[in-house]
Amino acid sequence: MAAAAASSLRRAGWRLWRGRAVVRCQLYSPQRALQASAVLRRVSDEQKKEPFASSSQQQFDSHSADHQPEQEPQGPRGPRPSYTGQGGQESEDYESEEQLQHRILTAALEFVPEHGWTAEAIAEGAKTLGLSVAAAGMFHSDGSELVLHFVSHCNTKLSELLEQEQKLVQLGEAEKKPTDQFLRDAVEARLRMLIPYIEKWPQALSILLLPHNIPASLNLLTSMIDDIWQYAGDQSTDFNWYTRRAVLTGIYNTTELVMMQDSSPDFEDTWRFLENRVADAMNMNNTAHQVQSTGEAVVQGLMGAAVTIRNLAGLNQRR
Q1: pLDDT exceeds 80 at position 32
Q2: Which among 31, 187, 265, 298 could bridge 250 via Cys, Cβ 3.0 to 4.6 Å?
Q3: CA 311/CA 309 separation, integer angstroms
Q4: What's the mean pLDDT when you consider all of the chain?
Q5: pTM of the prediction?
Q6: Reported confidence tier of residue 238, pLDDT bands at 50, 70, 90
């Protein structure tokens, strides 16, 4: 009972620490909501006036594929309009603002390598869905929603991969990995998702470090780290619970920085660096001095990361 109570208090403390800073990036001020509604009406009006051919775009995940625009049998007329019946009930064709934003952001990822994490990429994504470029006005001009959308999707994909691996172990179809190998493989799998966008990733990190994006990006980072440790089988109920997550956060952030500057084939130097850092962490004794050193190292690493990211982003802009 005591261990269970300690575990509950520990997890509550971790969630509270994250929750203080978390602000959902999708929440809008009244002015922002009015602007989004105006854009939706404008897009709908343009769809009624200008027929166009719908294009089939490969979607980033299965959720967005469920909302692909369908071609009308009588000719290319684009997505069917959303409307509300006289009784106030939504029709079967209704698409919420959140669903539309998800589709646009997912389609925009295809254009990030060319346009970066920008409103231009979002506008191009909207065009592939048969929407007006005015749909980009639903989002902030700094590309924040696009980056956060990508990070959130990658975290979800990693969680699904880890859950699938766990099921295989439970069914006896795969052997349980040692903790160090599991952590290394999980972090590598997550970082490999950045490869298609690696040239533009310094820009993405600089956007995530903007003051208004820090709460959401911090929440996404800590959620990912927590998921990795949970699937790794972490059952600690003492201060080690916090320490392990702080250490893995530092490993992920520093490996990410190494990856952005790595020119070796298939990022071999990055994975070697990751392997060494995980080995160092597993060999670390849980003494008070080392816990304090770990906390200081994480803070210094994050501060150094901010400077490095800013420099890298500046170099990319000058190219």
Answers
A1: no
A2: 298
A3: 5
A4: 76
A5: 0.69
A6: confident
Q: Assign residue 315 a region (left: φ > 0; alpha: ψ between -120 and 50; beta: otherwise).
A: alpha
Residue where the block lists tokens 């702080």? 246
Cβ–Cβ under 8 Å, residues 245 and 183: no
The predicted-structure confidence for 159-177, as pLDDT tens digits, reads as follows 999 999 999 999 999 999 9
CA distance 134 to 123: 7
| CB neighbour list of residue 190: distance below 8 Å, 6 or more residues apart | 154, 155, 158, 224, 252
Sign of the C-alpha dihedral, residues 22, 26, 27, 28?
Answer: positive
Determine phi and psi for 72, rounding to 5 degrees. Answer: -75, 145
In the numeric block, which tokens belong to residue 138? 């639903």
